[in-house]
Write a structure and sequence with these properties.
This protein has no helices and 16 strands. By secondary structure, it is mainly β.
């Protein structure tokens, strides 16, 4: 295959395929049956992935050019500027959430057009490190350096900000 993938930064699973974002080579590797079948060129410095199983789509956050790319049928169908770096993505309740790597909180994007439909402001933050969804309670958890924000996914309002000790790099909700 032409191309290479180095500096993996994120992973997503869609059906029987694994997608790996490669930051240094600015592509996403598609893995099927334990082998790379292709590399999909994306924007600069892809840092996060999210999968939409029902829509058969993969989303890529490209921090180097502040864009989100939409992959369908293993090719980029759309790339949209969001005006800020995003290091975490979440496809949840038929919306795409882009956690911003700045004091700007979280953008809510239409998953088909990648247009911003709402913004979730989280008070007194430095950056959003990661986000996870809880479908049972309709909550989104945003991991911030020294706290975790709890967001009601139906109203898109912050319902609590919980202090945490230290800097945490990963968040998982189940």
């Amino acid at each position: 295959l032409p191309g290479a993938g180095t500096d993996p930064s994120a992973i997503a699973i869609l059906g029987n395929k694994i997608y790996v974002a490669n930051a240094s080579t600015q592509n996403v590797a598609v893995i099927e049956e334990n082998r790379v079948t292709q590399f999909i060129p994306v924007g600069r410095n892809p840092a996060a992935l999210a999968a939409d199983p029902a829509g058969k789509r993969v989303y890529v956050s490209n921090t180097g050019d502040k864009t989100i790319s939409l992959i369908t049928n293993d090719q980029v169908a759309l790339t949209q500027s969001i005006g800020a770096e995003s290091r975490a993505l979440l496809f949840f309740e038929n919306r795409l959430f882009a956690a911003l790597d700045s004091k700007d909180g979280i953008l809510v994007l239409d998953p088909a057009t990648l247009q911003t439909t709402a913004r979730i402001d989280i008070p007194n933050i430095f950056t959003v490190i990661s986000i996870a969804g809880d479908p049972v309670h309709h909550r989104i958890y945003a991991n911030l350096y020294d706290k975790t924000a709890v967001i009601d996914s139906t109203t898109l309002r912050v319902s609590a900000v919980l202090p945490t000790k230290g800097s945490y790099e990963m968040l998982l909700a189940y």
